[in-house]
Specification:
235 residues; alpha/beta; Rossmann fold; six-stranded mixed beta sheet; four-stranded antiparallel beta sheet; 10 helices; 10 strands; 36% helix; globular
Length: 235
């Protein structure tokens, strides 16, 4: 479904991605693991068109999209729930969801709003509340819900557990798994390797802009280096 081939991305003279290649098959959850600065967020931003690579390709269903503007990539079925949520603080919950569907006719979106509310009942309770006054967990729910309003074929999730209490992290990831079971393919960036590997089918480990390891979630969970560096086990 999605294939990234030899991505070369720079911030000025800083070489952020040095030949990153990965694939995400339809129906999968694929996790991107790595420490801060490894290139995880840069990879997602490049896929969604927020960054332009100097080399390499991003293929969606075999079609190159790396030169398209972000709104056209959204229209082709790629949605991005970014790191830090980036909700519209002064708009209500409902208005944020409407913004997620800005490419679609208004008459078509109410059913999708109800789907988001069924996934996140807390948002339904707060549909008229100004988004900037929500808790961190509620804002993360809203960021994911807003992305789902685009009717994505693939959902890019960047650090959905960031800053959340453990009980909320568990709730968010239960919902992420449910979204996947409903048919949405997911590429997940997550610092919490244990919970990411618990929901993912496969995973890649990025180190300083390159893919250091890849395999099934079960394989990487048992890999000695992953256990030592990312799961806090061993010497």
């Amino acid at each position: 479904m999605l294939e990234v081939i030899d991505l070369q991305v720079f911030y000025g003279e800083i070489h952020a991605l040095k030949g990153v290649s990965l694939r995400v098959e339809q129906g999968e959850i694929v996790a991107l693991l790595g420490n801060n600065g490894a290139g995880k967020t840069t990879t997602l931003k490049t896929i969604s068109g927020l960054l332009r690579p100097r080399g390499g390709q991003v293929l969606l269903e075999g079609q190159a999209i790396q030169a398209l503007p972000p709104h056209e990539i959204v229209a082709r079925g790629v949605a991005h729930a970014p790191e830090g949520r980036k909700i519209f603080n002064r708009l209500t919950v409902f208005e944020n969801l409407e913004m997620g569907a800005y490419l679609r006719p208004e008459r078509d979106i109410l059913e999708d709003v109800e789907r988001v509310f069924s996934l996140f009942p807390r948002l339904k309770e707060r549909r008229t509340q100004v988004a900037g006054t929500l808790s961190g967990g509620e804002q993360q729910m809203l960021a994911i819900g807003r992305a789902l309003m685009t009717h994505p074929r693939i959902l890019l999730l960047d650090e959905p557990s960031m800053g959340l209490a453990p009980i909320l992290v568990e709730q968010i990831f239960q919902t992420v798994a449910g979204i996947n079971r409903q048919g949405t393919t997911i590429l997940l960036v997550e610092q919490n390797a244990a919970i990411a590997l618990s929901v993912a089918h496969r995973a890649y480990v990025l180190e300083t802009g390159t893919v250091a390891l890849s395999g099934s979630a079960a394989e990487l969970h048992e890999h000695p280096e992953v256990r030592r560096v990312y799961l806090g086990e061993g010497a």
